[in-house]
Amino acid sequence: MKDExxxxxxxxxxxxxxxxxxxxxxxRRLPPIKTPAVDRLFQVKPHVQVLAKCHFAAEPxxxxxxxxxxxxxxxxxxxxxxxxxxxxxxxGMNVVRMNLRNCGDTLHLTPTLYNAGLSxxxxxxxxxxxxxxxxxxxxxxxxxxxxNIVLKAASELxxxxxxxxxxxxxxxxxxxxxICVEALEQGFNRFYEQRFLIGLKAKIRxxxxxxxSLYDTSKLKLVNSVRRFDDLYTxxxxxxxDAAEYYEKASAxxxxxxxxxxxxxxxAKDDPIVPFHSFQSPKLQTPYITLITPEHxxxxxxxxxxxxxxxxxxxxxxxxxxxxxxxxxxx
Length: 331
What we know:
Layout: H1 16-25, E1 38-45, E2 48-55, E3 65-69, H2 79-90, E4 94-98, H3 119-131, E5 138-143, H4 145-157, E6 167-171, H5 177-184, H6 189-210, H7 226-238, H8 243-250, E7 263-266, E8 289-292, E9 303-310, E10 313-317, H9 318-330
Parallel strand pairs: 3-4, 3-5, 5-6, 6-7, 7-8
Antiparallel strand pairs: 1-2, 2-4, 9-10
Helix pairs in contact: 2-9, 3-4, 7-8
C-alpha cells in the first residue's frame, strides 16, 4: 500500500549527503522529559543482557508502548531516538529506548557483539514487557540497522506477530545488507564507512579488556572496511562462516512478504547508504506494508521545511511525526 504523505525538505537540503549529515548535527531544543527514564536490564539470551531506558507513564498497562532501536554505532541516547521519545511521551505512550548489545556503555553485559540479524533480542524484550509488566499494546520502531532488525522480527513472527506487536516502523532500514555495504564502499560514502569503523574498532579493543580470549585485537590492522570487519569479527561471533553469509541470512528483505502485522517503512529515494531499489522489491508489495518514499530525506535525516507539533514538541523532524501518527492510527 502506497502512502503519498508529502515531505518537503529543509531549504538547500535536497542533496542526500547534506540531508544525512546536517540533521545529525542539528541542535535540538527539546524540553525536559516529563517521565524520567528507569534503567532496566533485559535477559535476551543466557549470559547476555541489554540495557533499556524505560519511560513508564502513570498506569502503564493502559497505555501503548513503543520500543525504539537505534542504528549502527548508535545508542539509546542518539538524537533521533530522543526526539521520537519526546513525541511518543507527548502522545501518552510508554517508551523503551533499547540499546543493542554493547551499545550505550554496556560492553560488560555480554561476551557477544551486536549484529543486524538480532531480531530475537527485540522479541525477548517485547515478551518480557508483555508478560512481566502487563503491557498489552506494543509497537517497535527502528532506524537503519535497527530498522532491519524490527522488520526481520515482524517477518519471522508472521501471523503470530499480531499477538506481540500492534505495529512496526522502520526509517531508512538496511533491509538488504549486502547492497548497503557495497554502497558504503563507493565514493563519498567512504566517509561514513570510516566513521563507523572508528567506533567498531574501539568496541573490539574495549571488548578485549573484558574478554581477552574472545577478541584478538591484532586482526584490527587488517580492517579497512565494514565488510572486512564483518568477515573477521561480526560474522564469526554470530555463527556465520563469513560476511557474505551474514548479509544473506540477517537481511530482512528476503522474508518481508511473510509479515502479517501493520508495517510502516520510510525510505528516501536519495538515501546515499541504503540504495533505493531495495524498496522496489516485490517482497514489499503486501497489504500489511505502508511504504512512504519521498524524493529527498537522505539517510534517517528527513529535516522538513515546515514545523510540525506533537503536544509541546514543535520541530521539523518529519519521520518522527509519521511514526507517532502511524501508531495512533493503529489504536
